[in-house]
Amino acid sequence: MTDTLAIRIIHSPIKTCLKYTLLGLLVILLAYQLFLLANVILYRFINPSSTAFMRIKALNIADDVSPKILYNWSDYEQIDKDIKKAIIASEDSRFTQHFGVEWQAIIDAYYFNLKHENANKAKIRGGSTISQQLAKNLFLSQKRSYLRKAQELVITYMIEIIMPKQRIYELYLNTAQLGERTFGVTAASRVYFKQDVSKISSAQAATLAALLPNPILYSQHLKSSYMRNRINTIQARMPLVSIP
User: Fold this and answer.
1) N or C: which end of the chain has fewer CB within 10 A?
2) Model confidence at 17, in pLDDT bands (50, 70, 90)?
3) Domain boundaries, the chain
4) Residue 80's Cα: distance from chain center in Å?
5) What DSSP element (H or E) covers 103?
6) How far apart are CA 177 and CA 181, in angstroms?
7) Is the pLDDT score of 5 beyond 50?
8) What sign has the CA pseudo-torsion 147, 145, 57, 48?
9) What's the confidence (pLDDT) of residue 22?
10) Where is the Glycosyl transferase family domain (predicted)?
């Protein structure tokens, strides 16, 4: 009886400690979600001066490079319609129809990547919508993990609930990476074509859209047959998509 009582006395503080530790972690997690929600609400009305991905990228660029990030904002109405169509045609043809997440695309991408991983192939397929990519660009890193993916989904639904589609797309067009140091279609139009974002051609718009799956790699091979085929395919799809 005495031994049992002693065990209970020892276990009681341990249980209490675990209880408050878990409660503390839950409070921290909830506070972080509220912080993200507050920022999503803020970005509904205010244009970001930078994104998490831009800041992480800037840290990895040599100190003697200036500016480290090429980023200029353009309002939605200032961006050429062909760019809007090209990027939706390339990245998310059902953008105006879904509520932020295409679950079947995520499942298909998971099994595709698992198959290629088992075969020791480096090819990776993404299942993210434009809204998911925006969530990742604004708040998260580019590292792949199930935890980051789960957080990305939570932020995506926050974005879809709080922002209209046009605002989501405006933010994406201005913050998507389109080169080693280039973010957004405004900076990309100047870097690649020496052209204002409101005046680029259909072919130029398709070229920018073709960079998005892997802008650092693809920007080095713009004249390859693979990229020409991608650009032509995107141009053919452009009349078929709707924009917000």
Assistant:
1) N
2) confident
3) 1-46, 49-240
4) 22
5) helix 103-118
6) 8
7) no
8) negative
9) 85
10) 72-238
* In contact, 174 and 51? CB cutoff 8 Å: no
Q: Tokens 């998911």 label which residue? A: 132
CA-based nearest residue to 43, from 155, 185, 198, 209: 155
Sign of CA pseudo-dihedral 2, 5, 10, 13: negative
- Backbone region of residue 100 per phi and psi (left: phi > 0; alpha: psi in -120 to 50; beta: other values): left
Cβ atoms of 70 and 187 closer than 8 Å? yes
Token pair for residue 131? Answer: 């809204």
Size of the chain, expressed as the number of residues it contains: 244
And the tokens for 57?
């990228």
Average pLDDT over residues 212-229: 91
**pLDDT for 146:** 85
Rounded Cα gap, residues 242 and 69, in angstroms = 31
Structure tokens at 4: 């049992």
Helix 81-91 × helix 202-211 angle, to 10°: 40
CB 212 within 8 A of CB 87: yes
Pick the closest to residue 128 from 193, 85, 75, 172 (CA basis).
Answer: 172
Q: How far apart are CA 37 and CA 39, in angstroms?
A: 5
CATH top class, domain 49-240: mainly alpha
Nearest-angstrom CA–CA distance, 49 and 46: 9
Residue 173 in contact with residue 87, Cβ under 8 Å?
yes
Nearest to 198 by CA among 72, 89, 45: 72
| Rounded distance between C-alpha atoms, residue 173 and residue 87, angstroms | 8
